Protein: Coproporphyrinogen III oxidase
Amino acid sequence: MRIAVIGGGISGLVAAYRLRQKLGDEVDIVVLEQSERVGGVLRTGELAGEPLDLGAEAFVGRRPEVIELMGELGLDDQLVRPAGKRPLVWAQGAPHPLPGRTLMGIPSDAESLRGLVDDATLTQVATEPERSLSWEPGADVDVQTLVGERFGRQVVERSVDPLLGGVYAGISAGIGVRAALPTLATALDRGATSLTEAVREAMPAPSTAPVFGGLRDGYGALLTALTAAAGARVVTSMAGTRVARTPRGWVVDPLGAVDAVVLATPAPVIARLLHYAAPVAAEAAAGIELSSSALVALALPRDTALPDNSGILVATGEPLRAKAFTLSSRKWPHLAERDVALVRASFGRFGDESPLTWSDDELIAAAVADLSTVTGLPITPLEAVVQRWPGGLPQYAPGHTERVATLESAIAPLDGLAVAGAYLHGVGVPACVAAGTAAADRIVTSLGTRGV
Ligand SMILES: Cc1cc2nc3c(=O)[nH]c(=O)nc-3n(C[C@H](O)[C@H](O)[C@H](O)COP(=O)(O)OP(=O)(O)OC[C@H]3O[C@@H](n4cnc5c(N)ncnc54)[C@H](O)[C@@H]3O)c2cc1C
Structure:
């Protein structure tokens, strides 16, 4: 039996690994990856002679998927936790504490915003429960419209956008409530009488468990262990170009006949691959857009007096080019032990891809200048590394949940075909691990039904 996995990011690699676990050694699993390396937007590079993640650098540790996977792969000793410091927001040319007690920056009370927004906005937030809210159950709207109407523009630009910019490389105008904030949509559907009430209902229960986790040597350690455990034939520098159904299974160009196939590429590629085999699914996938970003990692002298915060997020409308800084040496105790201070600067938001066209030198100069502005320090990097992520993150626009439901129901009758990826049910690494696992389950079930 032969199974193809197209796309060697975390979603595809997890699918390959789960297929190996469930189907045993006899199955020929082939991972087709168009670039010269596996991992997709997970990449551990090197800075100042030591490993550093240049894509994702953390995962939500309250979800079990990554921690369980690390355990299965013998990587328990790689699990690291952040120091628990809070980020700052750079707004109106000054640093402010990131508001607490929010749902992705949407406040549950006015007090948490004091100092970040003006008095009129504080009053608008405090009195929001007094104004009636109209919400059609099942409706979807972009986050900017909902939060802007109820709490005002300053809350959007200074509290919500900086957080959404981090997760989706997008801004609230292009992100839908239902897909990005499902618990909030549920609270609104249930009849919350104000946004404040809905946010309070939707916020996760207070917990002392650490919110995030990471890997001591970076995600590269997970990719290496996962690839080995999958025991797949990994064919790099080769793109899957088309999939078509045959009486006995599938044909994948340019690989040939297979019994089953997992598509684990970004959504626009899914749209091309499925153009003939599943046109309705292809059309739904084509409606999911991507945003691009670039990252500059800086190694600074160890004694650089960076603020004692995990990062600095930049509000919309500030005259800076960077959208966020991760103060990696402050955020992660294991990185604080290094001989240099580490900072990651991020650039690029949906709709503004210009930073991707800048040269390495221009990106590094912008990172240094903007970091100097937000910290008030002279910044003299000892070393720097640049990583671009064209199309690295899907945008969960309004209507996203429906698009995904259409895609999934269109492929449901197609035995031996499954999809996985960040565009389905969450962009975070845990959601991608879950998507890869679900895709493998679906293939195993359909092969069993076919008696293969
Ligand atoms: C800068 C950045 C920072 C992030 N930070 C975090 C974080 O801290 N925590 C977190 O949880 N998440 C983070 N994310 C999100 C998370 O990393 C991604 O959503 C996740 O890794 C996506 O995995 P994937 O396998 O679905 O897709 P991808 O990683 O995009 O993998 C898809 C693969 O398919 C390949 N491919 C494309 N077309 C073809 C083709 N025709 N044939 C064969 N192969 C093809 C691509 O080359 C790629 O390797 C971040 C994302 C970015 C961009």
Summary: The longest strand covers residues 290-301.
